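Thread: quick sanity check before group meeting

JM: Hey all, I'm pulling together slides for Thursday and realized we never actually wrote out the predicted structure for the chain we discussed last week. Dropping the sequence here so it's in one place. If anyone has concerns about the input, flag it before I start.
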Amino acid sequence: MVNILQLTSEAKVLIAAPARPMAKEVADGISKLVACYPQVVEAHLPYCMIFDVMEQPAQILALTTKTMAEFQQVSQEIATRLPNVLPSVMALTIIFAEKESTFLEKVRGVRCRIYAR
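JM (edit): ok, ran it. Output follows.
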């Protein structure tokens, strides 16, 4: 299952490097998938908790594109292709990491980048 979220500026978010990251083969597959989309500037797989949105913390796919419109288009396309990469029991949430945002700074800080253009 793949979900797409757009954070509000009021969202309370905790970001960390995952203690038990997803399998390297899965992360590599996600990296290859996002590389197919020239709109994607960066992609990261941090561990995240968004209070009042997520029931429990999880590893997410944080994508940076130039615009929100690009994110909306690309995230939908990636979401339809992710089930071919993810194990059947794994869920993944895709979140927009706006350029120059505090959220993206936090994501970069935990060093979970899987792709950069």
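AS: nice. The beta strands are 2-5, 13-16, 40-44, 47-50, 58-65, 92-96, 113-116. The helical segments are 24-35, 68-81, 102-109.
JM: adding both to the slides.
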